[in-house]
């Protein structure tokens, strides 16, 4: 193996840069050159690349975002676009490719593998919706961003005796909502796995009010149905029993910012292990971290397994939020 490519794809997440650095430095330690592919599969199609040297990745582990930039690339999913990507791998003389991204990006990596490209995936997504890794790169930082916001909102909620609905990201997953609901001391977590209708909400709210709590903090996943907007609208129509309600949508602040120590370490280890897997001749696998060890799992298996939020986490919230 003489030349590898690395790309970051899908939603950016803190730790992508530490992963790129891990890939480049481990490749160099094994006399392999790394070509950085810009804007995910978009750059693979157009050949937008740059040689990554040890110096060009110096100091980047502490930066959020991705120096290679990222993209969602519908063209890659067309036969013509996919063919262009395959041809570009040939043209660039890339012997192996590291794809760092979420489940969509990993599906793309699997397609490349099936077409004969040596390809290893690394899970990156604040959603923590990818199986066969305890955590994806970016989750820890996003959780810390969210609990900082919850702590601040709690001050206002308590001072005004309000209900705050804090909408967090996660796409179809409720992991971020459940984890930050526990860490942030929310009264209620609403997620796709744990939906709540308006009647249930009114009775929970009344119970919390009767207990003399000064606030009612609800962390709600963006994928929940009914969603945060619908529930808050319904509360307006019901006259806000107990607490006046406000909605805060955290949005993309959750994806940016300085990666936590945990994310930098995770990303460095997964980047390093991905290159080692390519050197060993592995392909069509994802490198995850389970029980403190890096593990390699076939992408087909990873992508076939749903990752619902742990039941224990959901029941813990019920117990400790009272
Ligand atoms: P993420 O990787 O964060 O989940 P997306 O789902 O948007 O983000 O996927 C990123 C890119 O991966 C897409 O724009 C597309 O180019 C590629 N991709 C997604 N799903 C597939 C698929 N089923 N087959 C091939 N490529 C895919
Ligand atoms: O997958 C990461 C994520 O931030 C999801 O939580 C969210 O639903 C989605 O990406 C938002 O995507 P975009 O930045 O394209 O609006």
Description:
By secondary structure, this protein is α/β, with parallel strands linked by helices. Helix content is 42%, strand content 19%. The protein has eleven helices and eleven strands. It has helices at residues 16-29, 41-46, 79-91, 103-114, 139-160, 175-183, 198-210, 228-238, 261-279, 299-304, 311-320; strands at residues 3-9, 33-37, 49-52, 96-101, 119-123, 162-168, 188-190, 216-221, 244-249, 285-290, 293-298. The strands form two sheets. The chain has a seven-stranded mixed sheet, with helices on both faces. Strands 7-8-6-9 form a four-stranded parallel sheet, sandwiched between helices. Strand 4 (96-101), helix 4 (103-114) and strand 5 (119-123) form a beta-alpha-beta unit. It is elongated and about 70 Å long. The N and C termini lie far apart (57 Å). The mean pLDDT is 97. Residues 11, 102, 125-127, 169-171, 222, 255 line the site of 6-O-phosphono-beta-D-fructofuranose (F6P).
